[in-house]
Every structure is written in C-alpha cells, then in structure tokens.
Amino acid sequence: MDETIISGYFTIPRLIKKMKQHAINAEHKFWQRSFMASPMAIDEIGNRAGSRPFDMLVDDLVVFQQFIEEYITLLAYEHKRFIDYINKLDTDALDVLKRKYVFNQDVYVDETLETTLYAKCVQITADAKAKFYNIGSIQEDINVNYSEQIETIIERMI
C-alpha cells in the first residue's frame, strides 16, 4: 500500500491552489516576453532563429490554460468524492486519519481502515481518469515551451 496516494488526497486543495497560481504565472510570463523577432537572433548551433507567429503562441497559451482548467476540474472531482467518503466514516476513524495524514503525527491506524481508504482512493483515481479521459489529448496540442511543466502534471495522473 502506498501511503502517498492517501496523503495526496488530503492535499488536493493545496494542489488546486498551486495549479491556479501556475496558470496565472504562465499568462504573466507570456505577456512579459518580447514578440519581436531580430534578424541577429541565432540558436545554439548558429542557425538563424525565427520566432513563432503570434497567433500560434496565443493558441499555445489558450490550450495550456484549458488543460489547467480541466485538470483542476479533475482534482475537484476527486476531492469531492474523497470528502464524501471520509465524511461517512465515524468520528474516531476520521480523527485518526487526519492526525496521520494531515498533521503528520505518528499514530496507529487500523490496517483495515487504511486499506479500505487506499482502495477507495485508487477507485476514485480510476473513475476520474475514465471520466476525464480527454485530458491526455490536450497535452499533445501544447507547444514544447510548456511541455516540461505539463509532463510533471501528467505523471501524477498516471
């Protein structure tokens, strides 16, 4: 059993906040760049470096923002299902889980409870991937400039 999956569900609100900030930062960086091409611009190997047309750059930003929005929707779906499940647990079980996974205290959690919670997290993840199956196709549309950032996001989903 991988406890990081369970703890990840407790930190979804923080991840959503980071994703929203990431989208804001990407747009800010986009508009801070220069869209002017220079005839003196060369790449690493000495070839003349041209710039991409403005409309293609804007398309990249829009697709990136669309991906972030859909990913946030996926995370919100996962979080809602998780919260619905843990709210059905008795108060003592929920208290122990919060102490372990939210407050990082060294407490004993009944193995059956933890295994059941882990199984539910895996089921929620599988359901979310099935419901939001088109998220992976959006990544293919994003330009190389954003692909490194997106790959780390996609890796978490897989």
Look at the structure and give the mean pLDDT.
81
Class computed from helices, strands and strand pairing: mainly alpha
Residue runs with pLDDT of under 50 for 5 or more positions: none
* Ends apart, CA distance between termini: 17 Å
Largest sheet: none
Helix amount:
over 70%
How large is the radius of gyration? 21 Å
Order of helices and strands: HHHHHHH
Please indicate the percent range of residues in DSSP E strands (runs of 2 or more): under 5%
The 3D shape can be described as elongated
- Discrete helix count: 7
Number of domains: 1
Report on the architecture of this protein.
- The protein has 158 residues and is mainly alpha-helical.
- The protein has one domain.
- It is built from seven helices and no strands.
- The chain is elongated, with a radius of gyration of 21 Å.
- It starts with a helix and ends with a helix.
- 11% of the residues are buried.
How would you summarize this macromolecular structure in one to three sentences?
By secondary structure, the chain is an all-alpha fold. It contains seven helices and no strands.
Feature tags:
158 residues; mainly alpha; 0% strand
Secondary structure elements and pairings:
Blueprint: H1 3-10, H2 12-32, H3 54-86, H4 91-101, H5 111-131, H6 135-141, H7 144-157
